[in-house]
């Protein structure tokens, strides 16, 4: 079974993916980790030295490589992954299920402010400007996110509750 988790940064894709992998007894993969391991450098370094177009091309390549391999896994994607290069169509075609982990703007802000220093995209944005920044991104990405097979509302739920909800949706 191939399960893909999508959603904005801070939505819990990695945390919930690891819980699902443990409960479903399969591999957990983080697409960013796959890229870093295969390319031998960090995502932020890739963006700095090669640019976003290079990064998105490599992201598309490794995503499709994973989706077409014959193995079971839970895959956490980057927040922007579904929005480029037909990636969302590939996920819907090759994965058994794509779950959008939906978190409100206030919920995302609450989760992201404590970890801003580790998030290059928002590191230099003032806290009071985060709602507008995140809102703009969500508006741009929503059409892609909403194509997921399942939309899981994540506000005010524990990671375990969300993982259990996803397992329930899998049948």
Helix/strand layout:
Blueprint: E1 2-6, H1 13-24, E2 27-30, H2 31-39, H3 43-50, H4 52-67, E3 73-76, H5 87-94, E4 97-102, H6 105-112, H7 130-145, E5 150-153, H8 159-170
Parallel strand pairs: 1-3, 1-4, 2-3, 4-5
Structure description:
This protein has a single domain (2-170), classed as P-loop containing nucleotide triphosphate hydrolases (Rossmann fold, 3-Layer(aba) Sandwich), CATH 3.40.50. Helix 1 packs across helix 8 (159-170), helix 2 packs across helix 4 and helix 6 (105-112) packs across helix 7. With 171 residues, it is α/β, with parallel strands linked by helices. It has a 5-stranded parallel β-sheet with strand order 2-3-1-4-5. The longest helix is centred in the middle third of the chain and has 16 residues, at 52-67. The chain has 8 helices and 5 strands. It has helices spanning 13-24, 31-39, 43-50, 52-67, 87-94, 105-112, 130-145, 159-170; strands at 2-6, 27-30, 73-76, 97-102, 150-153.
CATH homologous superfamily annotation: P-loop containing nucleotide triphosphate hydrolases
Average pLDDT taken over every residue: 95
Shape: globular
- As laid out across the biggest beta sheet, the strand order is 2-3-1-4-5
| CATH topology value | Rossmann fold
Query: How many structural domains can be distinguished in the coordinates?
Result: 1
Weakly predicted, low-confidence segments? none
The percent range for strand residues is 5-15%
**In angstroms, what is the radius of gyration?**
15 Å
Main sheet summary: 5 strands, parallel
Just give the CATH class: Alpha Beta
The CATH architecture classification is 3-Layer(aba) Sandwich
Element order: H for helix, E for strand = EHEHHHEHEHHEH
Question: Given the helix and strand composition, which structural class is it?
Answer: alpha/beta
Binding site for Mg(2+): 14
EC number: 2.7.1.71
Subunit structure: Monomer.
Pathway: Metabolic intermediate biosynthesis; chorismate biosynthesis; chorismate from D-erythrose 4-phosphate and phosphoenolpyruvate: step 5/7
